[in-house]
Amino acid sequence: MTGALITVLGLAVLVIIVISRTAVVVPQQSAFVVERLGRYRATLDAGFHILLPFIDAIRYRHSLKEHAGEIPEQICITRDNVQVHVDGVLYLKVLDPERASYGVADYLFAITQLAQTALRSEIGKIDLDKTFESRTQINLEVVNELDKATEPWGIKVLRYEIKNITPPADVLAAMEKQMRAEREKRATVLTSEGQRDAAINTAEGQKQQVIKASEAKKQQQINEAEGQAAAILAVAQATAEGIRKVADTIRMPGGFEAVQLRVAEQYIGQFGALAKAANTLVLPASVSDVGSMIALAMNVIGRRASAAGPPPAPQNA
Q: For residue 296, what pLDDT is reported?
């Protein structure tokens, strides 16, 4: 009974082993490399597969997903002989599982070594000051070099990213000192430019103020002159109109006598005003002869009235 049980158990184990070596399920984004009696037979993609037990064997299992690997920190020497510590991250993907299995023993190790050598080569082409601002260019150059080397292995290098670039402490201190000096220089330049712009703006404002003031004064003088000219013209027109009306009135009946009375009143009034204005009064020789003065004035008015002609005829309404 015990021997039969052992036999049954042995057969069960054998069946399980046979099934495990015969039925294979390949996950998605995976590839299995199968050898038959030590030679490459096929690459199994995602799905269910049947193998010949003890004849076919799965030798390599590859993930077709993108793989990210750390590139250890290493010392690189720049073109100006400065040592910097650089590390990075490499992104790659298996495109051909067969070549990835047989083209290189350990493609991760090989690619890591290639990445470090390519990075040292690229860092050595540029100066330290250019190292920090040329990261993108360095990454692209490293990827190009690795892609050429890994193509026979069925590996595609997608990206390489530098994580850190660490210069020596003394170089880092010098760089910080230089950076502070540059910042102080820029601050000084910006301050002087601001003062210059402020002075220019102030002068421009004063210039505009003077120009506007002169234009306003010019316009004021023009307006005043035009006003004075208009006033003079209006006074002249009013004076001419007044004289014309006086002349017309003189030629009317009784007008001449009215003028004589008016002249006599003004003559006497003016002498009275002179006596009030000053203590000393110079009188003409014929001051007592008011009638002769009035006659003289009326003679002048009479000649002008005769020269002006008869008064205009009254207009009928």
A: 65
